[in-house]
Amino acid sequence: MYKTGTLNSEISKVLSDLGHTDEIVIGDCGLPVPEGIKKIDLALVKGLPSFIDVLTEIERHMVIEHITLASEIKSANTQVLTAIEKLMGDTETSYVTHEEFKDLSKHAKVIIRTGEATPYANIILRSGVNF
């Protein structure tokens, strides 16, 4: 058993298997999961675990070179957007419509479903390299 770090074995495996430019999605409890895309469902009850809690843990262990967000988050969920900006710092960021976001999620290695129940609390993380 790990002494520290991500205890979820599926998430740990996904992170270990990522290569440069591979993408994963962290989503709220309402984000649809495209057919054929692996889903890791962490949702326990409405609100738990939160999107930010999951993103914070993933960010501790993943080299992230780019993030993609739905542009609607700018007006519909400023609290989560502010938390993302604080956590991700100057990471390159793109904004697309929510419909485009859902289409892009079809290329992810995995979608991690949280218990988050606020609008547009979804992110695509593109893997970088540590060299």
Account of the protein in words:
- With 131 residues, the protein is of the alpha/beta class.
- The protein has helices at 9-17, 51-61, 73-76, 78-88, 98-104; strands at residues 23-27, 38-41, 64-70, 92-96, 110-113, 123-127.
- It has a 6-stranded mixed beta sheet with strand order 2-5-1-6-3-4.
- The longest helix is centred in the middle third of the chain and has 11 residues, at 51-61.
- The protein is globular, with a radius of gyration of 14 Å.
- The model has no long low-confidence stretch (mean pLDDT 96).
Can you lay out the helices and strands and say which pair or pack?
Layout: H1 9-17, E1 23-27, E2 38-41, H2 51-61, E3 64-70, H3 73-76, H4 78-88, E4 92-96, H5 98-104, E5 110-113, E6 123-127
Parallel strand pairs: 1-5, 2-5, 3-4
Antiparallel strand pairs: 1-6, 3-6
Helix pairs in contact: 2-4
Structure keywords:
single chain, 131 residues, alpha/beta, six-stranded mixed sheet, globular
**How many strands appear in the DSSP assignment?**
6
The whole-angstrom Rg is 14 Å
Major sheet: 6 strands, mixed
Number of helices: 5
The span between the termini is: 28 Å
Q: What proportion strand?
A: 15-25%
What integer is the average pLDDT? 96
Strand order of the largest sheet: 2-5-1-6-3-4
The structure class reads alpha/beta
The helix fraction, in percent, is 25-40%
Uncertain segments: none
Order of helices and strands: HEEHEHHEHEE
User: What global shape is seen?
Assistant: globular
